[in-house]
Amino acid sequence: MVNEIDFDKPVLELRKKIAELREFTRDSDVDLTDEIDKLEKRLEKLENEVYENLAPWDRVQIARNSNRPTTLDYIQYLFTDFIELHGDRVFGDDKAIVGGIAKYKGLPVTVIGHQRGRDTKENIYRNFGMPHPEGFRKALRLMKQAEKFERPIICFVDTKGAYPGKAAEERGQSEAIARNLFEMAGITVPIICIVTGEGGSGGALGLGVGNRIFMLENSVYSVISPEGAASILWKDASLSKKAAEAMKITASDLLEFNIIDEIIPEVKGGAHKDIERQAEFIDPILYQALKELTELTQDERVKDRYDKFRQMGKFIETKEPEKSPIKS
C-alpha cells in the first residue's frame, strides 16, 4: 500500500512543524504567530514547487495511494438517492464493480465504477478492484437498463486491470470485456467516463467507451503497468520509473494525444487530501458534459462516440505499389 510518497516528505514535515507550533502557541503564553505565518508562506511555495512538477512515476504513486477516493466516495458527494444493484444474472455479484441508480441534481442517472479497498480486509473483499467477468456483465446489465429507461451513464474508472486468474479466464474474461466494448459503442444514452486513479488495460476499457472521457490530474491510463512494461522491455521491473516516462500515461500526455477530453484538477497533494473538495472539482465538468450530451439525439450520441474513437491514433496513406511488368 502507498500511503505517503518520498517526494511528499518535505511538505508533510513542514505541515507537521506548523501544527506543532500552533499547538504550542495554544497551550502556552508564547506568541509564535509571525513564525507560523512565515512557515505557511514557505509551505505554499514548497507545495507549488513539488506538486506542479511531478514526474510520471510520482503521479503513478499518487494514483495508487490507498486513501485515494473510491467510486462509493464520489457517489456520496456527487449524487443523491443512490440505490446499489447487484449481480449479473448469470453467475454472481462481483464486489470489484459497484453500480446502481441515483439522481444528479434531480436527473436520474446510472452510476457504475471500480471499487478498491483501503485496507487488506476490504481489498480482499473487493478483489483489489480487479473485476471478474461477472463484474463486467453486471456493468453491462446496468448500462442496458439505463438505455431502456433513458438514464445517462456515468462510469468511474480505477483498476489495476481485469483479474488475470484461472477462474476469470474460465468464465470468459476476454469475451466479457470485448462484449462491453461492442455494446457501449452503440448505447443511445450519454456515457461519461472519469478516470479517478489507475486506468489499467482491458479492466479499464470495459468501463471506458464514452462520449466524454475525463481524467483526474494525478490519475494514469495505460495498456499495462509500468512494472509490467519494464519487465517486458528490459527484463527488469525495477526500471518501472523509466517505463512510466516512456509510456506517456499521464493525463497531460493523453490530452495531447486526444484520448481524453479534459483534465480535472486535483487538490494539492492529491484527491485523497480532501475528498469533498475534490468532488466539487468534478461537479461542474460533469454537469457541463451532461448538459451537452442530453441535448443531442440518440443517433447523434452514438455518432459522437463513434467519431471520437475513430479519430484516435494516426494513419498514413500510401500508394499501392506498381505491379512489376515481369511475370513471375
UniProtKB/TrEMBL annotation:
GO terms for biological process: fatty acid biosynthetic process; malonyl-CoA biosynthetic process. Acetyl-CoA carboxylase is a heterohexamer composed of biotin carboxyl carrier protein (AccB), biotin carboxylase (AccC) and two subunits each of ACCase subunit alpha (AccA) and ACCase subunit beta (AccD). Its main location: cytoplasm. Pathway: Lipid metabolism; malonyl-CoA biosynthesis; malonyl-CoA from acetyl-CoA: step 1/1. It is an enzyme of class 2 (transferase). GO terms for molecular function: acetyl-CoA carboxylase activity; ATP binding; carboxyl- or carbamoyltransferase activity. Pfam families: ACCA. One of its GO terms (cellular component) is acetyl-CoA carboxylase complex. This is Acetyl-coenzyme A carboxylase carboxyl transferase subunit alpha. The keyword rRNA-binding does not apply. Keywords: ATP-binding, Cytoplasm, Fatty acid biosynthesis, Fatty acid metabolism, Ligase, Lipid biosynthesis, Lipid metabolism, Nucleotide-binding, Transferase. It catalyses: N(6)-carboxybiotinyl-L-lysyl-[protein] + acetyl-CoA = N(6)-biotinyl-L-lysyl-[protein] + malonyl-CoA. Component of the acetyl coenzyme A carboxylase (ACC) complex. First, biotin carboxylase catalyzes the carboxylation of biotin on its carrier protein (BCCP) and then the CO(2) group is transferred by the carboxyltransferase to acetyl-CoA to form malonyl-CoA. Gene3D superfamilies: 2-enoyl-CoA Hydratase, Chain A, domain 1. Belongs to the AccA family. Residues 35-292 form the CoA carboxyltransferase C-terminal domain. It is found in: Cytoplasm. The keyword DNA damage does not apply. Its EC number is 2.1.3.15.
